[in-house]
Structure formats: structure tokens, C-alpha cells
Amino acid sequence: MLQKKKIVVALGHRALGTTLPEQREAVKKAMVSVADLVEEGADVVITHSNGAQVGMIHTAMNEFAVAHKGYTGAPMSVCSAMSQGYIGYDIQNELRAEFLRRGIYKSVATVITQVTVDPYDESLYQPTKVIGRILTKEEADAEEAKGNFVTEVEGGYRRIIASPKPKDIIEIDTIRLLVDAGQIVIAGGGGGIPVMEQGEMLRGASAVIEKDLISARLAEELKADELFILTSVENAKLAHGTDHEKPIGRITTEQAQQYMDAGEFGYGTMLPKVQAAVEFLKEGGERAVITSIEKAKEAYFGNCGTIITND
């Protein structure tokens, strides 16, 4: 058995599926890999995406408000909180069951996580992420009158929201306390709920935070040894999607930065994963791994995946 390590494990879309039945089955498979790491002695903190789930919740809540007078639509911050709870519910129950099958006795808990963002973050004024149902012209005008952004799409309009950089994790002391007590913690789901400080209050921002970036931030705050980003592919690749694509094995942060500067990674796919890995390592992390969910245990022993270190 390797020396015990503290690992933040970031689960991508594949680990969750899209519909409720898909999510249940996908999470069941993903928790086998997470349990493998725990069985090898790792202290694990789990983060996860919520793209499909938060969009579904946002659409459902706002369609309900349209169909039932007297009800109001739910803001993105509330939808994000709902998605954290509902995804965390599935993850903690499936992981608990997998632990019991293996004779592992650990508690698993979900922490609804808020993350502050800078109100002057440039991305707030240049939103790019499309969400929610298709709107009529009148509904789109009403959204713009409230200060929200919309974009024209086939069949009407849809809202677009920003993806600002994360600053402080509000519940970090609670997360750290649970981790130090040997608990498995699910936190920072969907990147966390983006909030802005207004006096003593926290106000939800109409935005989403990149899941991989909050995973790196959480790993830094917890002084984790390693960051595992589990996705749908075994390795990050150079020249991805071409006849000359090449899987990346072991590289340094310097090499990773060179590849990012050269535009080797997709903006909304692999780039944030490599960015998160580099940021984590620059803040003192030992190793960052990008690989598929099924290969997590092999990557733990250094036998596969894209492995990034400082030297």
C-alpha cells in the first residue's frame, strides 16, 4: 500500500449521466473507482459537475412559474443549490453501499458549498454559457430589463450566464473539519454556488463556476497531495481530433503551460482541466492526474493517464 494521501477527486459529466435513471447508474459505476482509491488508503474529497442537472432544474422551475400564476422562477443560485443536494444524495448513498460491500466503515456527507466571486470579474460582462428553456421575444426583453443577458437561438431566445473565477470557499472550515475527522466529503458541486458579499449577506450571482477550477481551489485550501480529474478519456491529447493526435503521459507544469499557450486544448473541454492541474501544482500540490473514471486506480499507482508534476 502506498503512503496515505489526501486526494480531491473531480467527477465529470460522464460520472453523472443526464436523466435521473442515467445518473443513478452512472454514479454507481463511478463510486466503484472512488472506493478503489479509499481502499488503497486515500482520504478522498469529491467534487462533481452539474451541467445537465442544473439546466434541467432551472428549466423545470421556470416552466412551472410560467404555467402557474403566483409562482416565481428560481434564480441560478437556488438551482445550483438544488443540484448539489440532489447529486450529493445519489453519490453519498451509492458510495456508502459500495463501502459496505467492501467492509469499509466511513461516513459520507454532502456540504452545500458557496464560493465568492469578484463582482468586477470581466466574465460577468461577457457571459458565454447558454442555459434554460427557449424564451419568446417578450420574455427575452423582460430578462434584459432585469439586467440579464440573452442570445438569439433557433426558435427564440435563451439566457446566457457568466463563468467567473472562484475566490473564497465559504464553507471551507466545515469541509476541512470533516476531512480531518476521516469523513468522505462531497463539496463544491457544479463549481459551488457563486455568491457576492453584500454587507453581512451573501447574494447569489447569476453565473456558474468551472468545476475543475473550484476543484483545484479546494485542493489548495485542504493542502491535498493530489488532484484527480476523472473524465471520459484516459489521457489528455495533443492535436486532439486529428490524424496526428498523441496521448500525453507524464509532463511537467512547464510543459503543460507550453501546450496551453500553443492552443492544444479545447476551451470548454480539456483546457480547464489542465489549467486546474497547473494551478494546483503551483500552489504546492504534489501531483495532478487527468484520466478516465475506469482508470482511476491504475493512475493512482502511476500506470496510466496524464500525470502532471512540478518537475
- Arithmetic mean of pLDDT: 90
Task: Give me the oligomer status.
Answer: single chain
The residue ranges in which pLDDT falls below 50 over 5 or more consecutive positions are none
Determine the fraction of residues in helical runs and give it as a percent range. 25-40%
| Rg of Cα set | 20 Å
Major sheet = 8 strands, mixed
| Count of β-strands | 16
Strand order of the largest sheet: 3-8-2-1-11-15-16-14
Tell me the distance between the termini.
24 Å
Topology order in helix (H) and strand (E) letters:
EHEHHEEEHEEHEEEHEEEEHHEHE
In short:
With 311 residues, the chain is an alpha/beta fold. The chain has helices spanning 20-39, 51-67, 76-102, 137-145, 172-180, 211-221, 253-261, 271-282, 296-300, and strands at residues 6-11, 43-48, 108-110, 114-116, 129-135, 149-153, 156-161, 184-186, 193-198, 201-204, 226-231, 237-238, 246-247, 250-252, 287-292, 306-309.
Describe the structure.
This protein has 311 residues and is an alpha/beta fold. It contains 9 helices and 16 strands. It has helices at 20-39, 51-67, 76-102, 137-145, 172-180, 211-221, 253-261, 271-282, 296-300; strands at 6-11, 43-48, 108-110, 114-116, 129-135, 149-153, 156-161, 184-186, 193-198, 201-204, 226-231, 237-238, 246-247, 250-252, 287-292, 306-309. The strands form 4 sheets. An 8-stranded mixed β-sheet has the order 3-8-2-1-11-15-16-14, with helices on both faces. The protein has a 3-stranded mixed β-sheet with strand order 4-9-10. Helix 2 packs across helix 3 (76-102), helix 6 runs parallel beside helix 8 and helix 7 (253-261) packs antiparallel against helix 8 (271-282). It starts with 5 loop residues before the first strand and ends with a strand. The mean pLDDT is 90.
